[in-house]
């Protein structure tokens, strides 16, 4: 099975539990809408990785009447959940890395989906090309300090975690010339590391980085024990803001 099918399957399986565990996702969506600010003219909007509609609902509330929102996700079950909750919003299954929609869009928005992209630089360039002159790309993704405590616990035992290598803010900004990137880290507290792992499963976000060899049950138990109870886990949220200049 391809990695994308694995990711889509994990999120589809979590469609019913996603919002119960989505504390960081709510934070990221709120940060994005805050950064968006006031929009006077109803825009044409493309959302990528809509999930159950956390960001979609916030965009619909923040944007003026008459805005046209197309919410998309790789997971059919997530799209179905978003569509059921938001019957007035257009929803579609789509791979954000291969957008099969016709632009231009005044706003392209995505919250905590880009960390799953296989080709982040290429995808950012393609999305920028779908913007209308003056259009805006706003997305949140995960940065290098994400799950630092979990990774540290692995290193202390001579083990490698399955957490992907996420970019620093400066490196992310460099992928799309003209983009601004701000860090909005959030540290969450869990009863223990096992509860953290269960929350990732509830989100559908448990797929490890490519090539990772799963730890043995004994190794996982050692990490959970060493991290103690309660344990703190940091989500390093990066917010990218890019505007396409007129004529670009």
Secondary-structure blueprint:
Layout: H1 3-13, H2 23-36, E1 44-48, H3 54-62, E2 68-73, H4 76-85, E3 90-93, E4 105-111, H5 120-129, E5 131-142, H6 148-156, H7 169-174, E6 180-183, E7 186-190, H8 193-203, H9 217-227, E8 231-235, E9 237-243
Parallel strand pairs: 1-2, 1-4, 2-3, 4-5
Antiparallel strand pairs: 5-9, 6-9, 7-8
Description of the molecule:
- The chain is built from 9 helices and 9 strands.
- By secondary structure, the protein is of the alpha/beta class.
- The chain has a domain of 173 residues: Vaccinia Virus protein VP39 (Rossmann fold), CATH 3.40.50.150.
- The chain has a 7-stranded mixed beta sheet with strand order 3-2-1-4-5-9-6. The chain has a two-stranded antiparallel sheet with strand order 7-8.
- Strand 2, helix 4 and strand 3 form a beta-alpha-beta unit.
- The N and C termini lie far apart (39 Å).
- The model has no long low-confidence stretch (mean pLDDT 96).
């Amino acid at each position: 099975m391809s990695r994308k099918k694995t990711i889509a399957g994990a999120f589809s399986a979590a469609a019913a539990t996603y919002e119960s565990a989505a504390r960081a996702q709510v934070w990221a969506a709120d940060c994005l809408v805050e950064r968006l600010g006031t929009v006077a003219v109803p825009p044409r909007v493309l959302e990528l990785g809509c999930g159950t509609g956390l960001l979609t609902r916030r965009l619909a509330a923040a944007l003026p009447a008459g805005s046209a929102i197309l919410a998309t996700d790789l997971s059919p079950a997530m799209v179905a959940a978003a569509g059921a909750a938001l019957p007035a919003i257009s929803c579609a299954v789509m791979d954000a890395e291969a957008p099969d929609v016709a632009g231009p869009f005044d706003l392209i928005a995505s919250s905590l989906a880009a960390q799953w992209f296989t080709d982040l630089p290429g995808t950012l360039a393609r999305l920028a090309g779908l913007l209308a002159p003056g259009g805006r790309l706003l997305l949140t993704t995960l940065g290098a300090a994400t799950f630092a405590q979990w990774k540290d616990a692995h290193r202390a035992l001579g083990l490698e975690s399955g957490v992907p290598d996420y970019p620093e803010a400066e490196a992310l900004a460099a992928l799309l010339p003209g983009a601004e990137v701000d860090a909005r880290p959030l540290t969450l507290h869990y009863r223990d590391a096992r509860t953290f792992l269960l929350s990732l499963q509830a989100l559908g976000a448990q797929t490890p980085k490519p090539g990772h060899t799963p730890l043995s049950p004994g190794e996982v138990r050692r990490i959970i024990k060493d991290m103690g109870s309660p344990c703190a886990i940091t989500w390093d949220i990066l917010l990218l803001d890019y505007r396409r200049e007129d004529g670009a």
